[in-house]
């Protein structure tokens, strides 16, 4: 039977648990050679251990797949470079980067400390930048040398980034920025044979199970729509050669539900042909609001 990602080399960040673990295992099942990157931290980013990543790689190898581990910090510029080099040294190339790693420091905005904000934005947004930037340098070099490139960046946004989430201002801001980053990557990198897409997954993970208590495993044997493994098929397909015509999209996925987010679009507008006066703005805004679609609800409201 043909496997969807036969021979492709894939980096998955944050691959030791939850959604990332599901990605790594499914990529391997579909024939990919996988770099399992994880720091082995707690859900808030504290602590460090190599064991969780090693366990995933061992599971892949026990199933007949190929996997190596990497414990570098993906939000550290040099560490991200070493991560990409791990793929090149172990497997002789790189085809896909799945940016999945992240953690939470949930706080209401007025209670968020500077170091908490910086830590969350760093791991999510800078982590996406560093790993992808080093990979793109490798891919662009190959493209300029006349070699064929069919590469993929798969970013991880969130419903919190698309719609906002009460108590998660730093996380929501970082995830919204990742959606915007994906659009720019797709526009700039297509010339080199690189696509960029993002997912906004909903699943049971260490970050969600303490907040959303309705995500528990069903006890009646019914379909577990919140299982983190449900996200992997979309990501594996996006990492395959079949997806080369798809770029600049944000996919929402939960259980058996799959959709494409519309994102920000130009809405109703008015053009006076001259400068508005301050007392004209109120009536103009009311007219526009009457024509516009209602805003989506922020999670938690």
What this model shows, in words?
The protein contains eight helices and eight strands; from the N terminus they run βαβαβαβαβααβαββα. The longest helix has 31 residues, at 114-144. The mean pLDDT is 92. With 301 residues, the protein is of the alpha/beta class. The protein has helices spanning 18-29, 51-62, 77-91, 114-144, 159-163, 169-189, 232-239, 278-291; strands at residues 9-13, 33-37, 66-70, 96-98, 151-156, 194-201, 250-254, 257-260. The protein has a single domain, classed as Rossmann fold, CATH 3.40.50.
Task: Offer a concise description of the structure.
This protein has eight helices and eight strands; from the N terminus they run E-H-E-H-E-H-E-H-E-H-H-E-H-E-E-H. It is α/β, with parallel strands linked by helices.
């Amino acid at each position: 039977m043909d496997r969807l990602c036969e021979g492709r080399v894939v980096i998955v960040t944050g691959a030791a648990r939850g959604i990332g673990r599901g990605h790594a295992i499914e990529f391997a099942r579909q024939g990919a050679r996988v770099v399992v990157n994880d720091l082995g931290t707690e859900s808030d980013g504290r602590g460090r251990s190599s064991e969780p990543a090693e366990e995933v790689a061992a599971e892949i190898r026990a199933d007949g797949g190929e996997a190596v581990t990497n414990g570098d910090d993906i939000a550290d510029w040099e560490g991200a470079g070493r991560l990409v080099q791990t793929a090149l040294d172990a497997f002789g190339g790189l085809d896909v980067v799945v940016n999945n790693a992240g953690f939470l420091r949930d706080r209401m905005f007025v209670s968020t400390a500077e170091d908490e904000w910086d830590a969350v934005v760093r791991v999510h947004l800078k982590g996406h930048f560093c790993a992808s930037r080093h990979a793109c340098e490798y891919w662009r070099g190959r493209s300029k040398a006349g070699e064929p490139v069919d590469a993929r960046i798969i970013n991880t946004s969130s419903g919190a980034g698309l719609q906002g989430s009460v108590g998660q201002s730093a996380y929501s801001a970082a995830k919204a920025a990742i959606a915007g980053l994906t659009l720019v990557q797709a526009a700039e990198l297509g010339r080199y044979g690189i696509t960029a897409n993002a997912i906004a997954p909903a699943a049971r993970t260490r970050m969600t199970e303490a907040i959303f208590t309705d995500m528990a495993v069903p006890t009646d044997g019914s379909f577990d729509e919140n299982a983190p493994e449900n996200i992997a098929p979309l990501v594996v397909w996006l990492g395959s050669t079949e997806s080369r015509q798809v770029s600049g999209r944000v996919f929402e996925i939960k259980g058996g539900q799959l959709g494409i987010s519309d994102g920000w679009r130009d809405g109703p507008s008015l053009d006076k042909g001259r400068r508005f006066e301050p007392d004209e703005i109120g009536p103009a805004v009311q007219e526009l609001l009457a024509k516009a679609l209602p805003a989506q609800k922020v999670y938690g409201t």
